[in-house]
Amino acid sequence: MKKIVVDMQNFLFGDSIAAAFKNSNYDIDVVRAETPQDTVELCRVYKPFVLVMEVTAYTPWLLCERMKLRDAVKTVCPECKIALIVDSNTEKQAAKDIRDAKKNGIIDQFFYGSMTAEYLMDQIYAMQGRHKKGGVKHNEKKKMAQLFAGADHAMDYTRLLKHVNKTEPLW
Question: Is 148 exposed, middle or buried, given 0-12, 13-18 or 19+ CB atoms closer than 10 A?
Fold first, then answer.
């Protein structure tokens, strides 16, 4: 079973993420960090494929502190992807900085706190098959081709796969 570590100030939202995964068909177990001080050790022990951290305006959830945690986690679990969650309504500058961190490749994904736990769950699930360089595993290519084989659309799957592998633009 794959694991994710969730480190959030908002315990209610963290609990809803854990409940969504528990009640889903995804084979993903959620490990909750009680405090940010536990996060690196949990990542060392469980080797999650994603670490989800909330960013707020309060210590120890500030973006600069999250980036230090990111660096520490990457030393013990280099394959772990980093996803940050921020309330874009109350933390406008942090939201902009997080968006830029994603754009610059410092983090793997970001989310706004206004989304549902189910949406977050689906996005985290989608993160697990990607290689560092953006490629798709061969068996995943096969599954994608099977999914698109029955679809009635103008795009062929070979072109879609080339786009997913970033070797050709989609349009």
Answer: middle
